[in-house]
Amino acid sequence: MKIVDIGELAKSSGVTTSALRYYEEVGLIQSVGRSGLRRQYSEDTLLQLALISLGKAAGFSLEEIKGMFGKDRKPDLPRPALHQRADELDRQVRRMTALSSLLRHVAECPAPSHLVCPKFRKLLRMACPEGLPYEKG
User: Fold this and answer.
1) How many CA atoms lie within 13 A of 97 on its CB side?
2) Of 49, 77, 105, which residue is a domain's last?
3) Can you give the CATH number for the domain in which 19 is found?
4) Share of the chain above pLDDT 90, in %
5) Could you say which DSSP state residue 75 is in?
6) pLDDT (tens digit, 9 = 90+) per residue, 87-96?
7) What is the band of 131 on the pLDDT scale with cuts at 50, 70, 90?
8) DSSP summary character for residue 130
9) Residues 41-90: pLDDT tens digits?
């Protein structure tokens, strides 16, 4: 097992040393010792940091991410919660794709006013699946 100090871990992972200390404080990672005042970590901590990063990117809180690690730092994944978050991400992807199409259309549409363009209106409805304000009521 290779040991890396906090500075090396920060450089390798892109996570600041202050964040590493915080992650250790809240129980997300664990140092294996110290060399002088510098904390030492196993090389496996890089994998944990990658999982923490992915969890944060997926919208999980640090507390939720912590709950995904069982005893002995082995993942204990709440599969229903992961499926639910994946479904939410899929919805966000569809909405962002529609928004991207809308913006591209606005940038390229030759219509004198986008508000009268049928394609613009269709794309706007796709980008706003909860409905448009003027359509409610």
Assistant:
1) 6
2) 77
3) 1.10.1660.10
4) 42
5) B
6) 999 999 988 8
7) low
8) T
9) 998 999 999 999 999 999 889 988 888 876 665 666 778 988 999 999 99
Vertex 53: Cα angle to 43 and 75 (nearest 5): 65
Asked if residues 3 and 38 have their Cβ atoms less than 8 Å apart, the reply is no
Residue with tokens 């009268």: 116
Domain tally, the chain:
2
Judgement on whether residues 11 and 69 belong to the same structural domain of the protein: yes
Q: What values do phi and psi take at 109, rounded to 5?
A: -70, 130
62, 77, 92 - which closes a domain: 77
Separation of alpha carbons 107 and 122, rounded Å = 16
Domain that includes residue 107, residue range: 80-135
What does the pLDDT read at residue 93?
A: 92
Three-state DSSP state, 6: helix
Question: Is residue 110 located within the same domain as residue 88?
Answer: yes
**72 and 95 co-located in one domain:** no
